């Protein structure tokens, strides 16, 4: 019998080396994240592998799985501990080695393997680790599967049937690179900054973009898991500002920034202006509708209201569904609605056939941006952006809030806004005309100004976003109103960044 995991153990003790530690809060809505050493030890990782293999078997899925790991100093050891657990539960493991998350998703198709477990903490700070998992390509686990996995692991309810095996897939990265670059080269002369934040994408992104026929200037592409300049996160203003400086220095046409595990892409235009990912989504939706005709799109509740309001998207016959934030949620919704694409404000983009295979891949997104520029040879990125109606939007802002209470706090905030609407109260000086509560609460006013509060799915934080199509002042008014409601809850701490 493998012991039941404990929520905490003291490091540098016999117990720490003899028992599994798995903090329950590490099981998030659609993946798993722990601070390694404090919330999870290697025996705990084994338990997660045993639990995942057990769950796969109980789902009636063939116990064959792709594994990969991102570029952090501890990720390879975590992956191998996970592998031992998977093998004990009877899984045939295909190890693709160092990889971006989309490479692991691609491997499910390329190797014809139903399941995936990618060891990555994405853009989280050093010290964090995690696993992105799936058993029904191209989608990854949602709350139901994560809840079942959590129960199996914490109760040590494992089916250790044995019979597992391990195979290392040599040079798999070249298969992924060929898949993305086996196409006509770009005809427009483009100079592109490939910003990697010293994360995993640095090993792959620059050469992929070069093979497309563009001039590539790598930025922080050297692998360095200490992340010496900033975390590889294209929502982080530090990374966006570095991309902006590089564009100005090199006279580039565009900067494309990739997060720690390569499934997201951020964009800075030829003037060095950061374009938030939801606005990039509007631009790509316009471009894709011109190529493929009227199309269905899915966006998350953090995204701009332009997906509904943009006159050009209306003219082109685009339809948009606003859905729950989270790569797993949007991925499933894109599949369920057979949408052409799904866009998240965080930079997770999902392209269905004929553009992609339905999963989030920062390089596929980068290629879509490059193709859009190639199809508009007389227009710069900035000129294409100017054609999108102006709105004033905030970056994603994250006030601290403990994992144990963040969902309760959001429930209180939802009820507060619902009570305000029922009582005819105003928000930011205007009536409340809409409340979207599919994921936290998105409160809207008659002039199109809105504010969102939701719980972060992978950090001890809340998420706040505001936008106004009227003015910067209206955006700031909405932020003040939303923050005032938030501050009624003493559990809410300081923001990571604000407007």
UniProtKB/TrEMBL annotation:
Residues 414-483 form the Alpha-D-phosphohexomutase C-terminal domain. Keywords: Isomerase, Magnesium, Metal-binding, Phosphoprotein. Pfam families: PGM_PMM_I, PGM_PMM_II, PGM_PMM_III, PGM_PMM_IV. One of its GO terms (molecular function) is metal ion binding. Its cofactor is Mg(2+). Residues 26-158, 175-272, 278-390 form the Alpha-D-phosphohexomutase alpha/beta/alpha domain. GO terms for biological process: carbohydrate metabolic process. PANTHER family: PHOSPHOMANNOMUTASE, PHOSPHOMANNOMUTASE_PHOSPHOGLUCOMUTASE. Belongs to the phosphohexose mutase family. This is Phosphomannomutase/phosphoglucomutase. The lineage of its organism: Bacteria, Pseudomonadati, Pseudomonadota, Alphaproteobacteria, Hyphomicrobiales.
């Amino acid at each position: 019998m493998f012991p039941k995991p404990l929520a905490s153990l003291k490091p540098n003790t016999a117990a720490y080396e003899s028992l599994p530690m798995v903090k329950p809060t590490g099981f998030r809505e659609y993946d798993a994240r722990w601070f390694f050493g404090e919330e999870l030890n290697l025996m705990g990782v084994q338990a997660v592998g045993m639990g995942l293999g057990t769950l796969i078997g109980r789902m009636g899925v063939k116990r064959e799985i792709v594994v990969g790991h991102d570029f952090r100093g501890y990720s390879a050891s975590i992956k191998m501990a996970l592998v031992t657990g998977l093998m004990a539960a009877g899984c045939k493991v295909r190890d693709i080695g160092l990889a971006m998350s989309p490479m692991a998703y691609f491997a499910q198709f390329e190797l014809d393997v139903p399941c995936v477990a990618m060891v990555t903490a994405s853009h989280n700070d050093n010290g964090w680790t995690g696993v992105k998992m799936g058993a029904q390509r191209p989608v990854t686990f949602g709350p139901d599967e994560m809840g079942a996995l959590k129960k199996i692991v914490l109760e040590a309810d494992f089916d250790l049937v044995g019979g597992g095996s391990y195979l290392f897939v040599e040079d798999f990265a070249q298969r992924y690179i060929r898949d993305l670059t086996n196409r006509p080269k770009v005809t427009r002369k483009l100079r592109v900054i490939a910003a990697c934040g010293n994360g995993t994408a640095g090993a792959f992104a620059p050469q992929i973009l070069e093979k497309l026929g563009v001039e590539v200037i790598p930025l922080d592409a050297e692998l360095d898991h200490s992340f010496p300049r900033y975390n590889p996160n294209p929502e982080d203003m530090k990374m966006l500002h570095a991309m902006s400086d590089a564009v100005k220095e090199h006279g580039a046409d565009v900067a494309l920034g990739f997060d720690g595990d390569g499934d997201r892409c951020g964009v800075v235009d030829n003037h060095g202006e950061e374009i938030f990912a939801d606005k990039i989504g509007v631009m790509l939706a316009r471009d894709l509708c011109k190529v493929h005709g009227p199309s269905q799109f899915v966006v998350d509740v953090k995204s701009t209201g332009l997906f509904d309001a943009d006159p050009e998207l209306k003219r082109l016959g685009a339809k948009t569904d606003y859905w729950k934030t989270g790569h797993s949620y949007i991925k499933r919704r894109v599949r369920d609605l057979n949408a052409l694409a799904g866009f998240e404000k965080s930079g997770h983009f999902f392209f269905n056939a004929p553009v992609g295979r339905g999963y989030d891949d920062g390089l596929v997104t980068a290629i879509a941006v490059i193709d859009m520029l190639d199809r508009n040879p007389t227009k710069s990125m900035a000129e294409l952006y100017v054609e999108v109606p102006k709105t004033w939007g905030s970056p994603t802002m994250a006030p601290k809030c403990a994992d144990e209470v963040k969902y309760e706090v959001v429930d209180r905030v939802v009820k507060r806004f619902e009570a305000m609407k029922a009582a005819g109260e105003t928000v930011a000086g205007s009536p409340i005309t809409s409340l979207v509560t599919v994921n936290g609460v998105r409160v809207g006013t008659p002039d199109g100004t809105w504010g969102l509060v939701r719980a972060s799915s992978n950090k001890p934080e809340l998420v706040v976003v505001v936008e106004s199509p009227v003015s910067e002042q209206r955006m700031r008014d909405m932020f003040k109103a939303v923050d005032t409601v938030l501050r009624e809850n003493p559990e809410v701490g300081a923001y990571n960044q604000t407007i």
